[in-house]
């Protein structure tokens, strides 16, 4: 075992650790994606093989048939990796950084094999036997790597079993309140909310026209769906019953620099303006425009209960939502019923803000933000889809409608309930001062501020939430 070989193994370990934690855990969150059960199984088997290899190469020299068994393990690793590549391409879209990392891992692994196989072949030519060889820090490091790989394997198998217990509600049943066969245009159709809405409508037999900016994401939408990349592709005689406008730059994926704020606002205003222009040139106007908005419209009110009739406080979130709603208002003058859906914090494991919390909480590193007294007005994603369908089917429902569950909770209660559901402590409080220094207005409004919002319009019209309590929502999605 030469120093060069150990160097290449160390590089392989470093790239593997990066891939596991950055991609698998934090960005792709494979442990919470039911579609990735088989991929996690492959990862678990491969990690256990790595643990075996690290222990053997760190402490032993094996001869005869035993050396051939190590060669067989190396070959098995190649087969599993090739299966993993195929599974990844079939079940998810890999980010560019993960593809690059996988390429580098494959090249480096090939170099390791070039150096390691002659050693193993030489050992295989000798009589059967085992020799313990202590290599100092290398043996200790190999043991640490073996333990780490084994723990990752256990994690993969445990996550695979958990995903097997998770059951998703059939999408088609979420829009049962929508009668007949409707044609629905959705902007933002590949987003966390839009993709589930599209699947629900198409599954129930409605015709979905999905406006997507990135054709590569089209595979996220189950057929039958009509895909367009511009509203100009729709002729004036196109029959559209409902438009659901959800498109916009994400607000929670980066700090609010001046450029970011401008992009957040312009993405919503420009898209909504395009929707209004489409309505103006359609021969037959749609029945309703469900225009996206958010509870940020109300601003920050501490503990005050907020319904659709509440006033607002000035802040960036209000400026954004007010401009977004204003851009949709001309559709009313065209004779279209307009509903401004003021959406709260949407819960689901396939996207939304909670996906950033699952990994730290699962590793016991979760806890309240600041004082924890700020209110979190949430809604489970399928309840939001049901509410959108209810809005479509209720002709006299207009103006602002709060898309939140009836029982908001404080941040402290939210983190406590999430920790309880994951069977983990939630005691690592993040100081508010630190968050403000790092995040500025982003932290003040999205993390440390909050709104205590109630869905009065939905409740008064008879809409029934399946998940009124946070515990019920977590039991459904986790």
UniProtKB/TrEMBL annotation:
<dbReference type="Pfam" id="PF08338">
    <property type="entry name" value="DUF1731"/>
</dbReference>
<keyword id="KW-1133">Transmembrane helix</keyword>
<comment type="similarity">
    <text>Belongs to the NAD(P)-dependent epimerase/dehydratase family. SDR39U1 subfamily.</text>
</comment>
<feature type="domain" description="DUF1731">
    <location>
        <begin position="430"/>
        <end position="477"/>
    </location>
</feature>
<keyword id="KW-0472">Membrane</keyword>
<feature type="transmembrane region" description="Helical">
    <location>
        <begin position="44"/>
        <end position="60"/>
    </location>
</feature>
<dbReference type="Pfam" id="PF01370">
    <property type="entry name" value="Epimerase"/>
</dbReference>
<dbReference type="InterPro" id="IPR001509">
    <property type="entry name" value="Epimerase_deHydtase"/>
</dbReference>
<feature type="transmembrane region" description="Helical">
    <location>
        <begin position="106"/>
        <end position="125"/>
    </location>
</feature>
<feature type="transmembrane region" description="Helical">
    <location>
        <begin position="6"/>
        <end position="23"/>
    </location>
</feature>
<dbReference type="InterPro" id="IPR010099">
    <property type="entry name" value="SDR39U1"/>
</dbReference>
<feature type="domain" description="NAD-dependent epimerase/dehydratase">
    <location>
        <begin position="184"/>
        <end position="396"/>
    </location>
</feature>
<protein>
    <submittedName>
        <fullName>TIGR01777 family protein</fullName>
    </submittedName>
</protein>
<dbReference type="InterPro" id="IPR036291">
    <property type="entry name" value="NAD(P)-bd_dom_sf"/>
</dbReference>
<dbReference type="InterPro" id="IPR013549">
    <property type="entry name" value="DUF1731"/>
</dbReference>
<feature type="transmembrane region" description="Helical">
    <location>
        <begin position="137"/>
        <end position="158"/>
    </location>
</feature>
<keyword id="KW-0812">Transmembrane</keyword>
């Amino acid at each position: 075992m030469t120093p060069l070989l150990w160097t290449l193994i160390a590089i392989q370990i470093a790239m593997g650790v990066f891939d596991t934690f950055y991609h698998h855990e934090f960005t792709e969150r494979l442990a919470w994606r039911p579609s990735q059960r088989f991929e996690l199984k492959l990862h678990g088997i491969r990690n256990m093989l790595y643990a075996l290899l690290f222990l053997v190469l760190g402490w032993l020299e094996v001869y005869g048939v035993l050396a051939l068994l190590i060669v067989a393990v190396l070959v098995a690793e190649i087969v599993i990796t090739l299966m993993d590549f195929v599974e990844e391409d079939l079940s998810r879209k890999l980010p560019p950084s993960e593809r690059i990392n996988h390429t580098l891992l494959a090249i480096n692994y090939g170099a390791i094999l070039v150096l390691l196989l002659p050693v193993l072949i030489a050992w295989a030519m000798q009589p059967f036997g085992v020799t313990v060889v202590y290599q100092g820090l290398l043996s200790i490091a190999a043991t640490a790597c073996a333990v780490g790989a084994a723990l990752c394997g256990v994690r993969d198998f445990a996550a695979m079993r958990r995903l097997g217990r998770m059951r998703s509600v059939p999408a088609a049943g979420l829009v049962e309140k929508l009668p007949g066969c409707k044609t629905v245009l959705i902007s933002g159709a590949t987003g966390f909310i839009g993709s589930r809405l599209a699947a629900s409508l198409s599954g129930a037999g409605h015709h979905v026209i999905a406006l997507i900016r990135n054709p590569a994401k089209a595979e996220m939408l189950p057929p039958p769906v009509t895909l367009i990349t511009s509203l100009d592709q729709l002729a004036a005689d196109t029959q559209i019953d409902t438009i659901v406008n959800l498109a916009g730059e994400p607000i929670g994926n980066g700090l609010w620099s001046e450029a970011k704020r401008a992009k957040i606002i312009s993405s919503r205003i420009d898209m909504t303006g395009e929707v209004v222009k489409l309505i103006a040139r359609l021969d037959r106007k749609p029945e309703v425009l469900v225009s996206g908005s958010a509870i940020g419209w109300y601003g920050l009110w501490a503990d005050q209960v907020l319904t659709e009739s509440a006033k607002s406080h000035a802040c960036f979130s209000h400026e954004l939502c007010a401009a977004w709603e204003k851009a949709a208002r001309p559709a009313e003058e065209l004779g279209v019923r307009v509903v401004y859906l003021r959406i709260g914090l949407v819960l689901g494991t396939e996207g939304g803000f909670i996906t950033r919390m699952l990994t730290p909480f699962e590793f016991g590193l979760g806890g309240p933000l600041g004082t924890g007294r700020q209110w979190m007005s949430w809604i489970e994603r399928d309840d939001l889809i049901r509410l959108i369908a209810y809005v479509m089917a209720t002709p006299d429902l207009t103006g602002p409608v709060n898309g939140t569950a009836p029982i908001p909770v404080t941040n402290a209660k939210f983190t406590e309930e999430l920790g309880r559901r994951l069977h983990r402590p939630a005691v690592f409080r993040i100081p508010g001062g630190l968050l403000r220094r790092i995040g500025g207005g982003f932290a003040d409004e999205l993390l440390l501020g909050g709104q205590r919002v109630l869905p009065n319009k939905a409740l008064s019209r008879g809409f029934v939430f399946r998940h009124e309590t946070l515990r019920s929502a977590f039991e459904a999605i986790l």
